[in-house]
Amino acid sequence: MNFFYVMNGKKLKQALIICVALVFAAGIIYSERGNVTVFSQNEPVAVYNVPTERKVIALTFDISWGDTRAEPILKILEDKGVKSATFFLSSPWTQSHPEIVKRIVKSGWEVGSHGHKHINYSSLNDDEIRTQIRTAHDIISETAGSAPSLIRLPNGDFDKRVLRIANELNYSVIQWDTDSLDWKNPGVEHIVNRVVSKAHPGDIVLLHASDSCKQTHEALPLIIDKLRSQGYEFLSVSQLMKQAHVDNKPPVEDHT
Which of these is catalytic: 62, 177, 182, 254? Predict the structure, then answer.
């Protein structure tokens, strides 16, 4: 039996319109920032949050330098019983603080890469980008005892090339939907109110544990208590992304 047939002009036009609509529908992701991005489904993306109806949230901490802020933050997470969080570590800091890295791993928190040099990778050529990601990967893997699969680029900077190369190196690029602005040291109350007021199910929260952020360890206990009082459960970024598969909803992504 021949399954091919010739449609008249009107039916052919209708079929073409439907096909185009389906292609565009499959390639559109709506960001909670109000942006709409059209792209190929195979194009690498960065993850900002995970749409879900569950009150789950990921606290993430970037560390690129310093000796005094990380351990107080780890102690707060331990004392508050926060068993899931994600730390994005630069490789120079990882190399000079192996015991803290091992403590993070032993406590069950997730380790991701924050790259090697703290520079904008979009300003580098392709080979330099690969070198930065691979150098960090080797150092963090050796120190932590397992290979990271998540990366937050220094300064949150990336372009399509960086996304593509990170994807080729088996990394997911992780951004954030709520920036605590703790790096500005705006005051403990300001940090707490900003995070708690912007928090939403599936949110990824940006915090820091570098020495330049002098108020994070004071704000963190209040953030944890207030979010818990609202019914939030803390997950790592990887756990949060798995929640997307449970809910059958894709992470909110961008290609900038």
Answer: 62
- Say whether 208 is catalytic: yes
Tokens standing for residue 124: 């580098």
Burial class (CB in 10 A: 0-12, 13-18, 19+), 190: middle
Residue 229 makes CB contacts below 8 A (sequence gap 6+) with: none
pLDDT in tens, 80-119: 999 999 999 999 999 999 999 999 999 999 999 999 999 9
Q: Are 191 and 182 in contact (CB under 8 A)?
A: yes
Query: Is 62 an active-site residue?
Result: yes
- Report yes or no on whether pTM surpasses 0.85: no
Domains and CATH numbers, the chain: 45-254 (3.20.20.370)
Of residues 97, 114, 137, 208, which has the active-site annotation?
208
